[in-house]
Amino acid sequence: MAELIETMPGANTEPPVLLLQGTGGTNQEMLAFGRRLAPQSPLITIAGRQGEGQQRQYFSQTAVGPVDDQQVQMESLWLGQTVQQVCQSRHWDATRLITIGYSNGAAMAAYGLQSGHLPGKTAVLFRPLWLSVPQPQHRTDYQAWLSAGEHDPLVTVATVQRVAAACQKIGATTTLEMTGGTHQLTPQEVLAARTWLMVNAL
């Protein structure tokens, strides 16, 4: 599974950043995106194990049919263990990990936050889908920034609000950014996310 993992060095004094892509994304795209949001941080991107090539996902997501809850839990555990191993091998501080996800990846990031599988205290969730977490953990030291597009045909504003509410329920501090966009990210929300990170985590 080493081919699923790519890293980019940064200052070891800065918090490491885990980047989780949406369906159709690539590790290289996520590393470039991560560098825009966290210019000095070490970067880690881990592609999903479901699907192949540019259709990789962290959990199988289709227009019809329910999500496999057991698959989601297994992949979340794997992600948490993998990022811990990467940080340990490079002497990066996993307790300061920032997780940034988009769409399918944002959903998995939110799941990892609530389940306690992912270390760290900060998440940026662009257009997260909803996933039910069977045993959410209390994370009062966690903060999450989320964004929703008013004209997003794939992830509704109500869905993102539901994810934000679930994060709040476990004690996390949340910030919800509303945009007039669709499922594609807007320059304004990327700038808003970077500004929030600079104030709260970097």
UniProtKB/TrEMBL annotation:
Keyword terms of this UniProt record: Hydrolase
GO MF assignments: hydrolase activity
Pfam families in the cross-refs: Abhydrolase_2 (PF02230)
This protein's name: Putative hydrolase MhqD
Domain Phospholipase/carboxylesterase/thioesterase residue range list: 66-197
Source organism, top-level taxon: Bacteria
InterPro entries named in the record: AB_hydrolase_fold, PLipase/COase/thioEstase
Organism: Levilactobacillus brevis KB290
